[in-house]
Amino acid sequence: MRLPTGRSYLWFFWSLALVGFALDQASKYTVFHWLYDNGRGDRYQLISGVFELEAQFQSTPRGLPKLDTGEGLLSPLRTWGGDALPYVNTGALFGQGRDLNGLFTFVSIAAALAILGWSTRPAVARDRFLSVALGLILAGTLGNLYDRLVFDGVRDFLRWYYLVDFPVFNLADSCLVCGAFLLLVQAFGTRPVTEPRQEVATGLAGMAEVAEAK
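Above: the chain sequence. Below: its structure as tokens.
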């Protein structure tokens, strides 16, 4: 189904990206503040035996909470819930590629810029499905990029352990997975609409080829 000329869903893209980013950060700060427990961390059962919130914090070799040094402009952002530093994932999605935070920070920046560039294309702005997918991916990318820049790694707090003990994740990861899934559906499950002029041109070209063959 072709959208009316000039119809744009760019506002939908930006709304999802900004709201998704805000919810991701709000959930991380809230959970790590709520389950701080003097820097020891804690758990809260959302669904008993199935799903829980889990806040983990870094510790010293002596088993004491590792505290932020208070140095740098970003220190207040790290210590909003307490002086103890949260345990972070320095790798990629679901803990893959640990201790490569610098590399994944660069990848996140490149991905965010690529998505922003892609979103400026008229075909994307007219495609509601694609706008949703890219908005979710940008939300997840920005959410985890913030963590990598401020905390040198990603804060995870959602844990699913029913039947399978799934790696701890966060809302940004969920946005990334959902957005990527929608992109796959867009790529393999839909057929792009052909503009009327293109259809006419294709038909004329086909008639010319038939005439030449005769």
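Residues 133 and 181 are 8 Å apart (CA to CA).
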